[in-house]
User: Fold this.
Amino acid sequence: MPILQTQKLVKEYQMGEVAIHALRGVDFVLEKGEFIAIMGPSGSGKSTLLHLLGGLDTPSDGEVTLGGKRLAQMSDDELTAVRRREIGFIFQFFNLLPTLTAAENVALPLLIDSKRIEDYAVKVEEALALVGLADRKDHRPHQLSGGQQQRVAIARALVTDPVIILADEPTGNLDSASGLEVLNILRRACDQKQQTIVMVTHDDNAAKFADRIVRLKDGMIDA
Assistant:
């Protein structure tokens, strides 16, 4: 069974009297351990698609199935639990809490899920070690470079062992060297941990780290 599947996914927005067709029947399948890049011009529907895959928005029509579960059939509470436990999110802006250390930021999804952090200390350390920041675990965001902050955000996304990681322009706010580090970490997570990753990017060089590229144009897959 595929890890992720969309079927005839449609998203429309109403802006006054104008209907905006963000997605127009998107179908694709993602297998476990696969790393795909979603590319396309601005307005092609990339971010809309990512939000639907992560249960952050609901489709106008069609379906998203994650790990055999149909998101459209879930209650709000069930969908919240799926986002919390089965999906790791990485954004262009790191969204770290400035008053928390790197380790505490990584542990945040566990805290939100009412887990005892004492029981997960080793897992937090392993996540930080994977992104090369074991020696920075007690540093706060202002003591870290932009690239290091994004690596903390990746560790935070990995700490729950999610079914899938959704990354929205994860290198868009970084210099080229830091961006390369982030892409290597994502590739390593895919190769070593069989982590499934969907990454939206404008960068052709970043897309080369993926196993395949899905191109969107005018809300449809551009064959």
Remarks:
- The chain has a mean pLDDT of 90.
- The first strand starts at residue 4 and ends at 15.
